[in-house]
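Lab manual, section 2.4: Encoding a predicted structure.

Procedure: take the sequence of the chain (228 residues), apply the prediction step described in section 2.3, and record the output as structure tokens. A sample record is shown.
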Amino acid sequence: MKIKIKALHFMRHISKLFVIHPFTTILCLLAISYFGATILIMIFEKVQLTQAATLIMPAFLGELGNVETNSFITKISILTALLISVAFLAVITAKITTIFIEFCLKGGSILKKVRFSNHIIICGWNFQGEKIVNDLLNNGSMRHREVVVLANSSKRPSKNEHADFVMGDPTQDEALIRAGVKNADSVIVLTDLTKQANEADAEALMIVLAVESINQNVHTSIYLHKSA
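Recorded output:
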């Protein structure tokens, strides 16, 4: 009874891992299966680990070949290695395809963290953002200065490929730090025009306070709904 309970607990744990980390879980299961097949060959062929690995490796590389053995278990193990090889390639291909599709849907690269210094950060986004990015990047005095857009968006807001994009909420210190606010030269805060004027301006002011609490030397500009 205890063994059955432990088995059920193990299966539930595996199912949770599969939901949270499907790619890693599948690769681990394939690796365990491959190692298990190698151990079976060691046992039934009565050979060392290196010899068993030599017998099973060609199958994993996609070449079944002729295996001189009378053991049915060994033949099944080698066939299993071939199937694991096919599954491994399928999983890797699917992962690469998923990354590529997400990259295209998001409109390009999204950085998790920047390592720039003396760069310009644009916090938030509205219709003014594209013009500001283009003006900054085309300005002769700022041509060699990086421009980072920090916005709470799943897609790149700017069409300009020379502007870097960090996805995150500009009101949060963690997102500002990932955008490199500690080493930034300037920060431009754009109000969210999809919100009410008072709410958008209050949020923009919160961003300014968050920025200056991290870096008091940064030059901050803010565009408000209401200037008065």
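Check your result against the sample. Residues 2-105 form one domain.
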